[in-house]
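Many introductory courses stop at the sequence. We go one step further.
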Amino acid sequence: MKPAPNRETTSQRPKSRLMCEECRRLLEDFGDAVRDVLTLNEAHFLAVIDGDVDPHRFEILIHVANERKQNAKYAYLQHLECRDHAEEI
């Protein structure tokens, strides 16, 4: 399994000129939240595979990370639907 890209790696990717700064920030926040969910799920999986006596400790962390991901996703989508967004570009 490849390691998740870090923020420095993802921020160096070429960015579309059609995205406003707020759009870029919200998309980056969403990407960070997705990465956090994946990282926690991987840690949970490895704990189960390794026979950890309490692998369930990850469940609340995964739940919180999923909520953060959903909030970030909807903030990004709401921004895209905003009428002002078209004018910012």
